[in-house]
Amino acid sequence: MIDLHTHTTCSDGTDSPLMLVKKAAAAGITVLGLADHDSTSGWEEATNALHSDLQLVLGSEVSCLTEDGVAVHMLGMLFDGKDDEIQRLLADSRDTRIPRMRKMIENLRAAGYDITIEDVAQSTPEGATLGRPHLADALVKKKIVKSRDEAFADLLNNDSPFYVTHLSPTPEDAIRAIRKAGGVSVIAHPFASRRGQIIDESTFQSLVAAGLNGIEVYHRDHSEDERNQLMAVARSLDLVVTGSSDYHGTGKLNQLGENTTDRQEWERLESMANERRVVQRWMK
Ligand code: AMP
Ligand code: ZN
Ligand code: FE
Ligand code: FE
User: Which of 129, 193, 257, 267 has its Cβ near the most Cβ atoms within 10 Å?
Assistant: First the structure.
């Protein structure tokens, strides 16, 4: 079972990289992708946790904004983690998440919600890429909402008056940086319209021109219709088709392996990286 998109406590998941690797192996995953938001800080722990024939695909989910202001998540996989340019791009994104969080808290406080940056800091694992789910956890702790889901539904979604974006690269720039670092790019949940505004079909051509390799079609946030439309886009542009869980531990309902990628599609994607970078532990 191939699941290329999961999160850990290095961003807004609730399992450590070590726990994630253990749970993935137990769930029958054979190829696991690590895709923490704007960070590669879990790579080492996950690599050290390998104890079976599980194969690890190191990556990151890069937050992007199109020139029209549409939020796009770009999965970068199999890139060289030591590449300066990509690490700078990820660090810049992480940095802007702090003032952005302060603004969201200001907005909430102005509307009478009793929440502070200290509350959010307490709900954020050390070193994690700061995100709205940590704010959601703080709101749960303060009994302002009951769950992350309720926090997003009522207060934190992209269409909410409290929402603030953070500075991010364009998806084209992210794709180019990932490619320069030897990796491959797959656009995550591109038609998940219930999350907010989505890109239109014509944008895919510009992404392909920048070097996009694949589309995440099978994802819980895509309706049947959205999947069908994306399959047609993938076919017409000869893009790799992936499916993945976007697992976040207990932070979301998504279960490991609930959506998966076909072996053939994965092999094609992997062959597009400039080096073989899948991590595996060779059995003696
Ligand atoms: P941010 O990176 O701060 O913009 O937050 C986006 C993250 O929030 C995404 O990775 C999602 O996993 C998470 N998210 C979005 N909607 C929900 C939801 N309804 N419940 C829990 N987490 C969510
Ligand atoms: Zn997330
Ligand atoms: Fe995402
Ligand atoms: Fe994700």
Answer: 129
What average pLDDT does the chain have?
A: 96
* Ligand 1 pocket, mutate which of 73, 252, 254 (most atoms under 8 A from CB): 252
* Beta pairing, strands 2-6 & 240-243: unpaired
Residue 282: how many other CB atoms lie within 10 Å:
5
Identify the pLDDT of residue 283.
Answer: 57
Q: Which secondary structure element, helix H or strand E, spans residue 150, and what is its range? A: helix 148-151
Of 170, 38, 172, 13, residue with least CA distance to 92: 38
The DSSP code for 241 is E
Answer CATH for 97-156 from 3.30.457.10, 1.10.760.10, 1.10.150.650, 3.30.360.10: 1.10.150.650
Over range 194-199, report the average pLDDT. Answer: 86
197 phi/psi in degrees, rounded to 5: -65, 140
User: Does residue 166 line the site of ligand 1, with CB under 6 A?
Assistant: no
Domains of the chain, by residue range, sit at 2-94+167-280, 97-156
- Per-position DSSP letters for 88-103, written without gaps between them: HHHHHHHHHHHHHHHH
Q: 138: which 2 tokens?
A: 């703080």
Q: State what percent of residues in the chain have pLDDT above 70.
A: 99
Cα 79 to chain centroid distance, Å, stands at 15
What's the pLDDT at 167?
Answer: 87
Residues pairing with 240 in the sheet = 214
pLDDT band at 284 (very low <50, low <70, confident <90, very high): very low
The pLDDT of residue 259: 98
Which CATH number applies to 2-94+167-280? 3.20.20.140
Report the separation in Å between the CA atom of 11 and the middle of ligand 2, taken as the mean of its atom positions: 7
Please report which ligand is nearest the Cα atom of 195. 1
CA distances to 8, 26, 51, 191 from 19, rounded to whole Å, are 9, 10, 12, 30
